[in-house]
Specification:
The protein has about 230 residues and is mostly beta strands. The protein has helices at about 1-20, 25-40, and strands at about 45-50, 65-70, 80-90, 95-110, 125-130, 150, 165, 170, 175-185, 185-195, 200, 205-210, 215-220, 225. Strands 1, 2, 3, 4 and 5 form a five-stranded antiparallel sheet that branches. Strands 9-10-12-13-14 form a five-stranded mixed beta barrel. Strands 6-7 form a two-stranded antiparallel sheet. A hairpin with a 2-residue loop joins strand 9 and strand 10. Mean pLDDT is about 90; it is low at about 10-20.
Amino acid sequence: MLRSALLLSLLLALPTWAEEKVQSLEAISSAASDFLAEQLASYGDRASFQLGRLDKRLKLAPCQKLDVLLVQGNRLVGNTSLRVQCGKGAKWSVNLPVAISIQADYWASARALPAGHELSEADIEKRSGDLAQLPATVITDHTLAIGRTLIGGTPAAAPLRSDQLRAPFAVRVNNVVKVIASGNGFEVVSEGRALGNAAEGQQVSVKMVSGATVQGVVRADGTVDVRY
């Protein structure tokens, strides 16, 4: 009788023992929520998110330290995915879907604009919207649009994108430019004539007075750096 009672008590304890050996799915979701709250803190109440649900049938070994990161190739906006992995105590990882909404100001064309048009303040207007519904390269800082040139035409009210804008030329074809040639222990300053248009950071070919052609990188002031 005593042996039967002892066996019964052991059997009743088995479910509790089993539960202790399984990772809490709620803890995984909580870690993901903490990660998102920290990452989106700078947006204040303009940002919100909705975590997806993990399958309740998922059985994972208990973890002492949960690590959360954004799945490679995803953005921290819109329908995206987080990876929660065990950093100590077990070896597993799960992907957790999440929908992120971020309300922000962005800049759009005030009217239809042609290709090659250099943008001024009169050409753009501020709008508000969910970044999840806008292009990844949408302009949110107007200073990144003013003075730049449209690569292609754009209709009125279209969100402006950084990839459709070209920086103003610091050097134009046939301009006489200062060329600074430098190398190991020397620097020579001379002049030449630009053979093309180029913005800051781009390369341009320059025909020197001697007739030789060199290629260098354009500075913001129009100087061309040639490295040897």
